[in-house]
């Protein structure tokens, strides 16, 4: 594996259309914030969803966990820290969401994705070599 974990920080400004009448981000939007961070993390390692499809695989999310600690609100800038925590048999990414101004933790969670072949939709119980090569060959900035 790489000498240190592969991580990425994504800044997101909570938009008006994500909040309820109390101007608090609806809990379901945290899944979107994780997705935005995950896409940036996958771009960083050179194996985003387009590259996954080109290599013959799709990677559906099969498990999602979220713990809400404190709500995010309209106009707030949040930082979503994403990190690859497992990749040999599945792709597991952890997330932590912080208020950018104060550093206060707002939420945490993780997603698990499994490789499925595009041509016959067969579940893979070991991650394809392309993912392992991208992660193990990753060089930090």
UniProtKB/TrEMBL annotation:
GO molecular function: fatty acyl-CoA hydrolase activity
Keywords: Hydrolase
One Pfam family recorded for the sequence: 4HBT_2
Highest taxon listed in the record's lineage: Bacteria
UniProt similarity note: Belongs to the 4-hydroxybenzoyl-CoA thioesterase family.
Protein name: 4-hydroxybenzoyl-CoA thioesterase
Organism: Cysteiniphilum litorale
